[in-house]
Structure formats: C-alpha cells, structure tokens
Amino acid sequence: MIKLNKKDITDLLPHRDPMLLIDEIYDIKKLHSATAVVNVKKNSFFVQGHFPDQPVMPGVLIVESFGQAAAALTAHGLDKSTYENKLVFLMGVEKARFRNPVIPDCKLILKIEAIRSHGKVWKYKGEAFVDEKKMADAIWSATIVDKK
C-alpha cells in the first residue's frame, strides 16, 4: 500500500506550515481516490483566534484540506514532467456541508475521489470523518495552471 508522509506531500504541493494541513495520505488509487489525515491539534494556528474558549476547525480550512488532498492525489498520479512548475488552484465549491464541529485534538480523516477530469480541470468529492462520524462533505473543482 502506498503511503505518503508529510515530506512526500511537501514534494508534491507548494504549501508549507502553517498552511500545509495534510499530514498523511494512504489508500491511494492512482488519479481516482485516496484517504488523507489532518491532525487537528490544540496548538493549530487557527485555535487561538477561532472561538478561543470553544475552538473548532473553521469550515473553510476543512474545504482547504479537501483541496490539498485532491491536489496531492492528482500530482502523485501524473507524470512529474506534466506536474513540474504547475500549481493546482481551487476553481469552485459546488456544495459543502458541515455536519458536526471539528474539535482540536482529533484525527480528521478525508476520503476523497476524483469524479471527472477534462483537460486541466478536475472535479472531486470528499467526506470528512472523526472516529467514523461524518463531519463534513463537499464537491469542488480545481485546475492545473503554470507557475508564474
């Protein structure tokens, strides 16, 4: 089973701490699906200011986590020469539902799937879980562009 750690992910994505949210990716089916892990910690950068007395992971960062996991899945599946000097930009979020708050000191599991690709535009769907309880789901699209 292929498993990507944080170092492997930084080789695929331009994101760096504190904005690199994905800690691990596994169960990879090339250009189709993967499972990603986000370790949501009490000292995560958003905790201090996002409801300090009752911290939750902002929904926008859950969507960002979905996007990062999808970008890493895509980059991992493409030939390096195709992906070199490129970036993956979020184009749109068609649907995002936040079902339960994600409380720090948990492992957020993202199950993502590429549902369509047309040239440089990809469409994905994902579900986020903590202890097998669904926390969020989304459908989004992204595109691969040249670095400038």
Describe the 3D structure.
A hairpin with a 2-residue loop joins strand 5 and strand 6. By secondary structure, the chain is an alpha+beta fold. 20% of the residues lie in helices and 45% in strands. It is built from 3 helices and 7 strands. It has one domain: Hotdog Thioesterase (Thiol Ester Dehydrase, Chain A). The mean pLDDT is 94. Strands 1-2-3-5-6-7-4 form a 7-stranded antiparallel β-sheet. The protein starts with a strand and ends with a strand. The chain is globular.
In short, what is this structure?
This protein is α+β, with helices and mostly antiparallel strands and 148 residues long.
Write the layout of secondary structure elements.
Layout (H helix, E strand, L loop, with lengths): L2 E2 L1 H7 L11 E6 L3 E8 L18 H19 L2 H4 L2 E13 L7 E13 L2 E10 L2 E14 L2
Antiparallel strand pairs: 1-2, 2-3, 3-5, 4-7, 5-6, 6-7
Q: Which features characterize this protein?
A:
Thiol Ester Dehydrase, Chain A, 20% helix, alpha+beta, 7 strands, 148 residues
CATH class placement:
Alpha Beta
What do we call the CATH topology? Thiol Ester Dehydrase, Chain A
Helicity range of the residues? 10-25%
- Give the overall average pLDDT: 94
General shape: globular
**Domain unit count:** 1
Number of helices: 3
Proper CATH architecture: Roll
> What is the terminal-to-terminal distance?
35 Å
Low-confidence stretches: none
In CATH terms, the superfamily is Hotdog Thioesterase
Determine the structural class based on helices, strands and strand pairing: alpha+beta
Strand content: 35-45%
Give the H and E element order.
EHEEHHEEEE
Adjacency order of strands in the biggest sheet: 1-2-3-5-6-7-4
How many strands, which pairing sense, and closed or not: the largest β-sheet?
Answer: 7 strands, antiparallel
Strand runs, count: 7
Radius of gyration: 15 Å
